[in-house]
Design a protein that fits this description.
The chain is of the alpha/beta class. It is built from nine helices and five strands; from the N terminus they run ααβαβαβαααααββ. Helices cover 44% and strands 14% of the residues. Strands 2-1-3-4-5 form a five-stranded mixed sheet.
């Protein structure tokens, strides 16, 4: 299709520039992927995982959705996490939000978005649980940005509550869960949560003792 000509031409230029710097790059890349990181991020086109983290293809396994949510009924996300920790043996799961997130903003407003409303409902739950704190923030943009941080915190907790994740820890595996947030205005990542490295970092009521790997 004519409307993809520029995209395809850019791809050729990119591939040629990579090969000029490292002639064996694609040969090595084709052999296997052995990433140490699983990145769970927002679908926002301004937040490309490998570019903003300074990594190259093959170093990071990536899952993206609206507002970087980890929902326990989302078989897509759960399958990605399972594959990453059980097959690829990643050592770090990184949930990364970003300031000014449209999905998070939508959760603070009454506008309807059709099918996406079902997804945004998960963020509305976070908003409602922290309503007292958030309503003290008078500036709406600042309130949205704080909710972006709180949403990352909740999604990190959701990852830690997954039986397959806890199964890794119960079997002595090395796995850390991190929460980061990205500033589109300055290009910087910062921590939102301290790393979760085992069951000792999770409230006991969320422990899934003797969990199976699925």
């Amino acid at each position: 299709m004519q409307d993809l000509d520029d995209l395809l031409a850019s791809n050729v230029n990119w591939a040629e520039s990579i090969k000029a710097e490292d002639p064996d790059f694609f040969t090595r890349l084709a052999e296997q992927q052995t990433p140490e990181y699983l990145w769970i991020g927002c679908s926002d086109s301004r937040v490309p995982a490998t570019q903003i983290s300074g990594m190259v293809p093959g170093e990071m396994f990536v899952h993206r959705n609206i507002a970087n949510c980890v929902v326990h009924t989302d078989l897509n996300c759960l399958s990605v996490i399972f594959y990453a920790i059980q097959v690829l043996k990643v050592k770090h799961i990184i949930v990364t939000g970003h300031y000014g997130c449209g999905g998070v903003r939508a959760a603070t407003e009454s506008t309807r978005y059709g099918l996406a409303d079902h997804w945004i409902r998960n963020i509305r739950d976070v908003y409602n649980r922290r309503r007292d704190e958030l309503n003290k923030i008078e500036d709406h943009d600042e309130r949205v940005n704080r909710l972006c941080e709180l949403n990352v915190e909740q999604q990190v907790a959701n990852v830690a509550h997954i039986p397959a994740v806890q199964h890794v820890w119960q079997n002595g595996g090395e796995l850390s869960i991190h929460g980061l947030i990205y500033g589109i205005s300055d290009g910087l990542l910062k921590r939102v949560t301290q790393p979760i490295t085992g069951l000792q970092d999770i409230a006991e009521e969320y422990h899934v003792l003797g969990s199976v790997s699925g």
